[in-house]
Amino acid sequence: MEHNIYKYILRYSKKQQVILTIMSILSFPALYYYLELPKLIINQAIQANDISFPVEYVGFEFDQTAFLYLTVGLFLLMVIVNQAFKYVINVYQGISGERMLRRLRYELYCRILRFPMPTFKKKSPGEIIPMITSEVEPLGGFIGEAFALPIFQGGYLLVIVSFLVVQNWVMAVAAIALYPLQAFFIPKLQRKVNLLGKTRVRLVRVLSDQLGESVSGVEEVHTHDASSNMRAQFSNQMDKIYTVRYRIYLLKFIIKFLNNFIQQLGPFFFYAIGGTMVINGTLEVGTLVAAIGAHKEMAAPWKELLAYYQRREDARIKYEQVIEQFEPAGMRDADNQLVEPDEIPSLTGELVASNIELSDDTGSKILEGLNTRFKLNERVAIIGPAGSGREALTHVLARLIDPDRGRLMAGDVNMVTAPEAIVGRKISYVGQHGYVFNTTLGENLFFGLKHRPLHEKKYTDEMEKERQTYIKNAELTGNSIDDIDADWHDYELAGVENEEGLKARALEILEMVDLSEDVYRLGLRSTIDPKEAPETAELVLAARRRFFEKIENDPSLKNMIEAFEQDKYNTNASVAENLLFGTPVGDEFDLDRMAENKYVQKIIEEAGLTETFLRMGYQVATLMIELFADLPPDHEFFQLYGFISSDDLPEYQAMISRIDSERLNNLREEDRLRFMSLPFKVIPSRHRLGVLTDDIEDKIVAARHRFAEELPPHLKNSVAFFEADAYNAATNLQDNILFGKIAFGFAQAAEKIGAALATVVEEMSLRSTIIEVGLNFTVGTAGARLNATQRQKLCIARAIIKNPDLLVLNQATSSFDGATQVRLMNNILEEFKGRGLIWSLDHAEKTADFDHVLIMRGGRIVEQGSPDKLKESSAPYKELLAAS
Amino acid sequence: MSLKEEVEILRQIPLFAKIEPSKIKLLAFTSERLTFQPEDFVCEQGDNGDAAYFIMAGEAEVIVETPSGPLTVATLGKNDVVGEIAILIDVPRTATIKAKTELTTLKITKDVFFRMVTEFPEMAVEMMRVLAERLVRTTDDLQKAKEMIRNGD
């Protein structure tokens, strides 16, 4: 990358800069006339000096008034032309700058993708992210004006100066006499400010890093009462920033002071020298005034130029600082990632590593002249004590880290120089904690299959035009033109024909890594859009009917679930749910705040239930006060069972003692709302409060019907009603199948219903369909919505689905419990029978089922062979076996 | 069954006899009422116990695993409490409780149970009385068993 920002600008935007310069120069004549015209208007058109009317102009005759209109018309034209130039130049400047910024960011991002792994030990995301996002932002602005601004403003200044010289050269010289002084002192001071600026940028970077650490390490901070120390560290950093900022301010405003002072010295000289000359009669008063006026006019461009200088220095420093951070030693060539070989060779034969050496960043050796050789159709275990270089070896073999020296061959392929297109497709690696991206489970699973856009997307004419614009813009800025909407899946690599095949394979692999049950459960709890997946919705409806039959025919299950029935009150659902009889979509019918909803209030009123609800609210409040009044406010019961939070309880207490239960129809609005809100939360069979009589239940069912019938059009999309023969898009698959509420008070009801559901799924072969839905589950930032075991299993599945010739696992299952570890290991060993597998293990006894074992010690392989052979004759192996 | 009825039933249990009605109400309100089908297990020997059950209706069998197979040692009915040992001292369930008929219970979790016992010494004393009675009965049984063995010699 260019180290000098000007070289960078010229290299990538020479054409734009030339165009900008030409446009600036072209604008000067108009500018000159814009300055010249007022003189003409006053002297000739108004005062008629040196002119006799009518004048002839381009074949037309003008009298004085007409001439005045002609000249002011021209003046207006010049104003428009000037502003038009400014507009075009500004827009073009903005676009050029933005393009360069896009190019720069893209280039920096590409570099991050090529950083050697150890770099990330020294550089944290907290440092890297602001560099690409905010720190380079002002560069875009600067790049746009890099050449055009000094030319435009400098030219503007020149135009004014030449205008002044034409009027009176002495005054012109006096006006700019002090500019050299300014041009000499200001940059010197500015340099100091810039150096401080540089320090400040560095300090802020550290600050953002500290912030990131506090967030990531917040658990440690709490468990060790380290918050005071963290605060002190933060304070300390802020103080450093403050000190630098303070000095910057002092200098910055001194510069401002000097600038203004020198600017004001101009008039001082004019009045002193010019005044003397006027008194002596060598200068006319009018010229003096004109000179002062022109000097004022000069202030703006001169200021712009000085400010430009300031920005230029800023930009230069920022650019250099950023670039220097993005050139770590040992970075791979861009071609290593971009080259697409004609053919991807398979890794077969033997893997040969000779004289592999690797040091860490302190220079101490991790691998010391390591030599080994094993077949690529064998399952190889690596064992050795901690610090033996096991992990480093897996990194080198997986081509994550470049060895300092040594040769690494896989069959005929030189692994050290092979492009990522080969090693990244033929080798898989999973460490102890794989990373899961914030997208769907399926996208994560297929991440390793998306190397290039393989199957183009078909575009309609109009979309094709948009696509072409996209490509043009990307090309102009050196960005990637690969179509993100194309199908990137490499089906061939996964050993399948098409999307269907890939899904089937995914199910197999999820089973292999013991994740299918989890994905199945996630699928049950996911929603689908029946418009997008009509078959799935249809299947779910069929499952609902079947489930219903099953329940109907089994008396022991019948009581455990209460189906939603249009004309029956559901005693296991809350009053709110019973009234709404559907799933709320959006916030309009928030089940916790139903009482506040105007439409709900109207329906309750029309059903003649308002007073009933108030009475129920009163009863519930009374009971709650009786039960909870003595409990301390932080008691968990409030959260678990309370209808009323501990904060609100005193309020209700006051209400109950103030309000007579016979006069509930005459309440203040807020009291009313408070009482009204309580009954909505009542679930009869759970709370057993006895406040809901059969009569009230019937009325609520009637209100439910009215609610649906009278729902105004603008609320139609705020609720998805329960309908026995329609799929409910707002709720998940499981609730769609159950279509009812699991009853309270029955032992193991949830388990028994779950088992019945599982039978239905089994009988209808719905499992794979549900797992496919589960693949659309969004996993959250860094997979936070999955647990650590699920994440790791997903990473292992991702590494297997691309059918690597060599799978490298670095204690990838060590965080699992014993039984899971054994199960997974057996499955993976089975899958990789006759294929390449390298597994770094912490326990020697786990190596029994491998074909080959490497024993490491002190960065070397001290012995290797089949586990049986080693067990008999190898002292280190026996030692490791005994230790584990 | 409404909360009121539950409170009535709970008050008939000697353990709760001396506790104020409002506290019993709270106990009933915060505790889950669980119905077991005949043959359902309330708890199984060896499991970790986190709750005791007050029988409000129906009958349950207490079964202990012995080397010669399961042995029904007692049948419990209305107003009896089961499963309290495992929550009093942290040991796995000492017996299996199986519903003999449809069984309605009030499940009281360990936390709630301890809170009640510490808050109401009367309840602790009552608990001691129940346990002591059981000890007397067990000692009695042991005595009889020993005699049977001696006679058998």
TrEMBL record, chain A:
<feature type="transmembrane region" description="Helical">
    <location>
        <begin position="66"/>
        <end position="89"/>
    </location>
</feature>
<dbReference type="Pfam" id="PF00005">
    <property type="entry name" value="ABC_tran"/>
</dbReference>
<feature type="domain" description="ABC transporter">
    <location>
        <begin position="351"/>
        <end position="883"/>
    </location>
</feature>
<dbReference type="GO" id="GO:0005524">
    <property type="term" value="F:ATP binding"/>
</dbReference>
<feature type="transmembrane region" description="Helical">
    <location>
        <begin position="18"/>
        <end position="35"/>
    </location>
</feature>
<feature type="domain" description="ABC transmembrane type-1">
    <location>
        <begin position="39"/>
        <end position="314"/>
    </location>
</feature>
<feature type="transmembrane region" description="Helical">
    <location>
        <begin position="156"/>
        <end position="181"/>
    </location>
</feature>
<dbReference type="InterPro" id="IPR039421">
    <property type="entry name" value="Type_1_exporter"/>
</dbReference>
<dbReference type="InterPro" id="IPR036640">
    <property type="entry name" value="ABC1_TM_sf"/>
</dbReference>
<keyword id="KW-0812">Transmembrane</keyword>
<keyword id="KW-0547">Nucleotide-binding</keyword>
<keyword id="KW-1133">Transmembrane helix</keyword>
<protein>
    <submittedName>
        <fullName>ATP-binding cassette domain-containing protein</fullName>
    </submittedName>
</protein>
<dbReference type="InterPro" id="IPR027417">
    <property type="entry name" value="P-loop_NTPase"/>
</dbReference>
<dbReference type="InterPro" id="IPR011527">
    <property type="entry name" value="ABC1_TM_dom"/>
</dbReference>
<dbReference type="Pfam" id="PF00664">
    <property type="entry name" value="ABC_membrane"/>
</dbReference>
<keyword id="KW-0472">Membrane</keyword>
<dbReference type="InterPro" id="IPR003439">
    <property type="entry name" value="ABC_transporter-like_ATP-bd"/>
</dbReference>
<keyword id="KW-0067">ATP-binding</keyword>
Automatic annotation (TrEMBL), chain B:
<keyword id="KW-1071">Ligand-gated ion channel</keyword>
<keyword id="KW-0472">Membrane</keyword>
<keyword id="KW-1133">Transmembrane helix</keyword>
<keyword id="KW-0406">Ion transport</keyword>
<dbReference type="InterPro" id="IPR050866">
    <property type="entry name" value="CNG_cation_channel"/>
</dbReference>
<protein>
    <submittedName>
        <fullName>Cyclic nucleotide-binding domain-containing protein</fullName>
    </submittedName>
</protein>
<dbReference type="InterPro" id="IPR018490">
    <property type="entry name" value="cNMP-bd_dom_sf"/>
</dbReference>
<dbReference type="InterPro" id="IPR018488">
    <property type="entry name" value="cNMP-bd_CS"/>
</dbReference>
<keyword id="KW-0407">Ion channel</keyword>
<dbReference type="InterPro" id="IPR000595">
    <property type="entry name" value="cNMP-bd_dom"/>
</dbReference>
<dbReference type="Pfam" id="PF00027">
    <property type="entry name" value="cNMP_binding"/>
</dbReference>
<feature type="domain" description="Cyclic nucleotide-binding">
    <location>
        <begin position="15"/>
        <end position="134"/>
    </location>
</feature>
<dbReference type="InterPro" id="IPR014710">
    <property type="entry name" value="RmlC-like_jellyroll"/>
</dbReference>
<keyword id="KW-0813">Transport</keyword>
<keyword id="KW-0812">Transmembrane</keyword>
